[in-house]
Specification:
Layout lengths: L2 H16 L9 E12 L7 E11 L4 E16 L2 E17 L6 E19 L5 E21 L4 E12 L5 E13 L1
Antiparallel strand pairs: 1-2, 1-8, 2-3, 3-4, 4-5, 5-6, 6-7, 7-8
């Protein structure tokens, strides 16, 4: 997608967010926490990491969100040590349902994901190599929020993420954190 289209999409998102949404208490939210990523091609086990997100409530159940995060794993692969880093910046929408005090949600996000791989060997000779590329990334998932106080909520979620690399990467992201609404 060209830069012009990304800017047009961003402008449309901001215009929608600026429209009045009647009867809402919390218009903005900030969140963050820990997340674990399982990738079908580049990592064994789970890559540990973090996420931060921000949202602007467009309607009582609909929020425009921006999510960023980083996951990293180091592995010993024979004579090589590899380090794989996944960085993402995604935008999209989160739709919440209200079930008593619980708030289940679903979300659809799109953006860019950076995949960086570094491999090093020290035996029999010192050698190394790096690969770093940015790809279109789509994410679909959901989770549950439960209140800890009037404006603070605990959030847990599971997402499917697809990174459109030369060979597509299918990832599962499991996260937990807190969200502050104001």
């Amino acid at each position: 997608m060209s830069r012009r289209r990304w800017w047009a999409l961003t402008l449309a998102f901001v215009a929608l967010a600026a429209s009045p949404a009647a009867g809402q208490g919390e218009r903005l939210e900030l969140g963050g926490g820990i997340a674990f990523l399982s990738s079908d091609r580049l990592t064994d086990g789970y890559a540990g990491g973090w996420f931060v997100d921000g949202g602007w409530r467009l309607a009582p159940s609909l929020t425009a969100v921006v999510v960023g995060g980083r996951h990293r794993v180091t592995q010993d692969v024979g004579f090589f040590d590899t380090e794989v880093t996944f960085d993402t910046v995604l935008v999209g929408a989160r739709y919440r349902f209200v079930v008593g005090s619980l708030r289940p949600f679903v979300q659809l996000l799109a953006g860019r994901g950076r995949v960086a791989v570094a491999a090093r060997a020290t035996s029999p000779i010192a050698t190394g190599g790096d690969d770093d590329a940015t790809h279109v990334t789509l994410q679909l998932g959901g989770g549950l929020e439960t209140p800890l106080s009037e404006s603070l909520r605990l959030r847990v979620g599971v997402n499917y993420r697809r990174v459109e690399a030369d060979t597509a990467l299918n990832q599962i992201v499991i996260s937990s954190g807190v969200t502050l609404g104001f």
